[in-house]
Design a protein that fits this description.
Blueprint lengths: L4 E5 L4 H10 L5 E6 L15 E5 L5 H7 L5 E4 L5 H6 L1 H22 L5 E7 L21 H20 L3 E6 L2 E2 L12 H11 L3 E4 L5 E2 L2 E2 H11 L9 E4 L5 E2 H11 L7 E4 L15 H7 L7 H13 L4
Parallel strand pairs: 1-2, 1-4, 2-3, 4-5, 5-6, 6-11, 7-10, 8-13
Antiparallel strand pairs: 9-12
Length: about 325
């Protein structure tokens, strides 16, 4: 049992539920905290070694109940980028205060803590002048990136002051099996596949030339699991992505090809308030150098696997 007793916050969400499925076979027990504001409890498998706690990471009583047993924490719970601009105070409370409280309670309650893995975001880079963007850069333009970046700083504080074994991972546009359209805040890949399934045009905000670094979920799972036990990760910040730019127009074309609908119709709409970033690709040199990690899946590979999952009934 490599991971012992584990806590996954946000474990009923897309990434969290995929991580829980991986952890069940290699952990003694998995605890999940999720308030189900965007998560789906049905995404979690049934298991005698899984305990689901419906609640918030800002609930001190709940944290004090669970954390004394925990040896490894994966902190994925957060308000997402769209919700953050609709409710900036809620974003601050959940993302920043929730992260700080979890760190404080981990320090107080987890006597055998082996790792605290925090999933941050490539959104901290804003419109970076350097592509691919290294971990040393930041440009905070939205509440979501502000709260996530601030929590990174508190992770560093608890690492340096109290030796809490933190690892910070900045994820970039993760997609793949488990990302459900039932969540209105899901990513563009899931929305595009659903649009094709429904016979609707692919909706693109802006002119579609904006780029993102789309990262397949299995590559992210690989980094998350390694970050929880390999010593090289402790105290460090790492980008998790591919280092490659793909425009939204190129993504639409790739999905049209994979689904067998060449020149599928698109619908262009004005940019939203959250559409601040024109180009994105993250530099993964640090991960490659420090822990010899490279992504295994190309965008096409990941899209095909996602489409296969959708056709097989989302099992």
């Amino acid at each position: 049992m490599k991971y012992g007793n584990v806590l996954v916050t946000g474990g009923a969400g897309f990434l969290g539920s995929q991580l829980v499925k991986k952890l069940l076979s290699i952990s003694e027990h998995v605890h999940v905290i999720d308030d189900l504001s965007t998560g789906n409890v049905n995404a979690l498998p049934q298991s005698a070694t899984l305990t689901f706690h419906r609640g918030s990471i800002t609930n001190e009583e709940l944290l004090e109940q669970i954390l004394p047993e925990v040896e490894c924490i994966f902190h994925l719970a957060c308000r997402n980028i769209l919700l953050s601009v609709q409710d900036i105070e809620g974003d601050l409370h959940t993302n920043l205060y929730g992260g700080f409280l979890l760190l404080r309670k981990a320090k107080e309650c987890c006597s055998h803590l082996k790792r605290f893995v925090y999933t941050s975001t490539a959104s901290v880079y804003g419109n970076a002048p350097v592509i691919p963007t290294p971990e040393s850069y930041f440009n905070i333009t939205l509440p979501y990136s502000a709260s996530k970046f601030s929590t990174e700083h508190y992770c560093k504080v608890f690492y340096h002051m109290y030796q809490v074994p933190v690892t910070i991972l900045r994820l970039s546009n993760v997609f793949g099996p488990g990302q459900l359209i039932e969540n209105p805040y899901c990513g563009v890949v899931a929305k595009f596949f659903d649009a094709v399934e429904q016979g609707e045009p692919l909706t693109i905000y802006g002119d579609g030339t904006q780029t993102r670094d789309f990262t397949y979920v299995e590559d992210v799972m690989d980094v998350l699991l390694r970050a929880a036990w390999e010593p090289g990760f402790v105290g460090n910040v790492y980008n998790v992505g591919t280092g490659r730019e793909t425009s939204v127009n190129e993504l639409a074309e790739a999905i049209s090809t994979i689904t067998g609908h060449l020149s599928y119709p698109t619908l262009y709409k004005p940019k939203r308030v959250v559409d601040k970033v024109y180009r994105r690709a993250v530099d993964v040199t640090a991960l490659q150098t420090d822990v010899q990690w490279t992504p295994r899946y190309s965008l096409t590979d990941g899209l095909r696997k996602t489409y296969d999952w959708l056709r097989e009934g989302k099992v």
